[in-house]
Amino acid sequence: MIDCHCHILPGIDDGPADMAQALALCAALVADGVTAAIATPHLHAGRWDNTPEVIARVCEQLRLQLEVNNIPLQIRAAAEVRISDELLNWVEHNAVPFLSAKLSAENPSRVMLLEFPHGQMIPGSINLVHWLVRQNICPVIAHPERNKQLQKELTLLTPFIDAGCLVQLTAASVIGEFGAAAHIAAGKILELGWPGIIASDAHNLTGRAPRMSAAKAYVAERWGEQTVSRWFSDWQNFWWHSGSC
C-alpha cells in the first residue's frame, strides 16, 4: 500500500520527536503493509511554520537513515496544509509542497492535502476552495469524518465535493478507533461513493499508530474489492508515480 498522509518526519510537527522514533514509526508502517509513504508534516501558520526547504531536508535525512537501517519504505515529502488566510500567499509564492504534480492522467491539477479545524467548517471556506480550483489545485480534504460539525451535518461537505475536492479518510476512523461518531461518518462517506483515499495519518506507535491493513480488510469485507481499489490504490498509485512539485 501507499500511504498518502502520515507524520513520519522527525522534529518538525506533532509526529516523531527524533530520528529513532521516526524510524520506529516507519518500521511499523512497513509491518502494516505500507511500501511507500508521502510524508505530510503540518503546515499551520503560527504553529508549524514549515517550509518546503525544511520539509525536503528532513525527508532526505530520514530517507538516508531508512537505507542505513534496512527499513524498506520509500518516502517523499508533501504537507498537510491548514486552511487559513495565509494559504493564498503560500500558493502564490510556491510555499506549499503538493501531494502530486497531477491529479490524474486526464486532469493536470496539482493535489493539495487540505486540513480544516476539527471543531467546525470555517464560514467562507468554499470560496477559498473555488480559488484553489481556479489555480489548478485539487484539494484533498483531510479526515472530514473527524470534524465535529460534519459528524452532525455531513451534507455540509457536498459543495466541496461538487467543486472537485476529494476526501481522505483516516484508517483508524474506518475501523472505529477514533470513536463512534467518526466511524459512522466514515461509513457514510464510503456509502456515498465520493472520490477519495484512505490513509493512516500515523503520528506515533501508541494512540496514532498505522491501521491501514485493518482498515483495508474491513472495507473489503463490507464493500468489496472494487471499493478497496478505489480507496487504497487507484489515486495513490498515480500520485506516487506522478511525483511531487
Automatic annotation (TrEMBL):
It catalyses: O-phospho-L-tyrosyl-[protein] + H2O = L-tyrosyl-[protein] + phosphate. Keywords: Hydrolase. It holds the Pfam family CpsB_CapC. GO terms for molecular function: manganese ion binding; protein tyrosine phosphatase activity. SUPFAM superfamilies: PHP domain-like (SSF89550). Transmembrane segments: none annotated. Its EC number is 3.1.3.48. Belongs to the metallo-dependent hydrolases superfamily. CpsB/CapC family. PANTHER family: TYROSINE-PROTEIN PHOSPHATASE YWQE. This is protein-tyrosine-phosphatase. It comes from Gammaproteobacteria bacterium LSUCC0057.
